[in-house]
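does this look right to u?? flavin-adenine dinucleotide version
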Amino acid sequence: MKGVQSKNYNVVIVGGGITGASLLYVLSRYTNIPRLVLIEKYNEIAHVNSHFNNNSQTLHFGDIETNYSLEKARRVKEAAEMLKRYLEQYARGAFRKGYKMVLAVGESEVAELERRYEEFLPLFPKLKKINREEIARLEPRVVKGRNQNEKILALFTEDGYAVNFKKLAESFIRESRSVEKEGKQIDIVLDTEVADIVKSDDGYRLETSREVFTTDAVVVAAGPHSLIFAHSLGYGKEFGILPVAGSFYLANNVLNGKVYTMQIKKLPFAAIHGDPDVDNPQETRFGPTAKVLPLLERHKYRTALDFLQTSVWNVRGVRSLMKIISDKTIFFYVLKNILYDLPIIGKRIFLKEAKKIVPLLEISELRYGRGIGGIRPQVVNTITKKLEMGEAKITGNRIIFNITPSPGASVSLKNAEQDALQVVSMLGAPFQFYEKRWCEDIGSSMVECRE
Ligand SMILES: Cc1cc2nc3c(=O)[nH]c(=O)nc-3n(C[C@H](O)[C@H](O)[C@H](O)COP(=O)(O)OP(=O)(O)OC[C@H]3O[C@@H](n4cnc5c(N)ncnc54)[C@H](O)[C@@H]3O)c2cc1C
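got this back:
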């Protein structure tokens, strides 16, 4: 693309999912950086994992997610509170409030949930233990037909938020553009794929399918594709991606609120749950399943080549992947999850899992959610030979790369705060982060309000 006129910005954001959109919002409203652009390869915002069809639509706080440690729950709660404040002030049409619970079935799960309740109550004082009768009053089908001798217990809270993360991302974009009247330039460039990011003397040059952009700093918020750009610039060579697809089964009017099941230890993906769709509460969604697929985007088979680029093709990389997959718990879980997507028998096998939540659920009630469900880019650390349990951020010279498995959407605003602070410090004076305004609007324990 030599000889092509380039457009110049202070910051380029690559990727228009919830991560990129929330960063654009924070940089445009809470810093004095004047020229920003977000580049998205599809012709709409939030078309991939942040699309309402492709995730579990949950604002995770850590109270009913039994795969979170207390420390992780503390961090996720702080981030979720920030997003909740935004939703309630600026995006009331993007969420639905409702109750949620985590259900323990059988002696050992009940004992584990009792222990967890004591540990988590100080962090989540609104959490209540509810017994069989209370569960039946709220969710009749969770109790109907269940063996009377089978012990059950649930932790319950009224404070559940189902979120349409696509609508939320669109709201971030709208709010960002509202600063254009202050003379800032906020550009959204859709239908344009970034092909290459090249370091230049004073910043970066981005070559895209349409035009060339030059910039002082870059934030790559392209989900698993972020790692391809990181590798190409020599960063994060120790990381690879294990793509874990999640599918959903659908039924009509089965549950009134969100019902989680207890987590299998060691798994970095959330346990299967059932809940009403955020925009169509008559539809109950069961899932997500967890199937390893060699793709970076669901149903986009050409991303198999991209997957190859995110793998670490050396002895250490292959050994790490083998070690993770050959773990007995993960191996059998992944195997079972492959079966869920098979025609005819998949539904029958999944029904057994869903019956843990709704014992009398009928095969005729369930239908496979065709075309829905995204891919969680689980990060493989080839040094520790383990799966990282959450999101990963790689920071380089005036460049940040975000890789965002669940709960990436719930923590997006907190993540944007961290990126914005870092970008301001990368660019240096005269750029600044408006901490006081940020604290008053959204709040965060990391940035303290100053007079
Ligand atoms: C089954 C499932 C259930 C989940 N449930 C939840 C949940 O309940 N709660 C929660 O908080 N999180 C959940 N998550 C995780 C959450 O969906 C993601 O963490 C979040 O959507 C990631 O947002 P993102 O903007 O980083 O990525 P994405 O939404 O994937 O956006 C990345 C964007 O980058 C664009 N892009 C990629 N490459 C390029 C390029 N070269 N040039 C230009 N643009 C590019 C893509 O087109 C895309 O729009 C779930 C995920 C899955 C798969």
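The CA atoms of residues 246 and 289 lie 5 Å apart. idk if thats expected tbh
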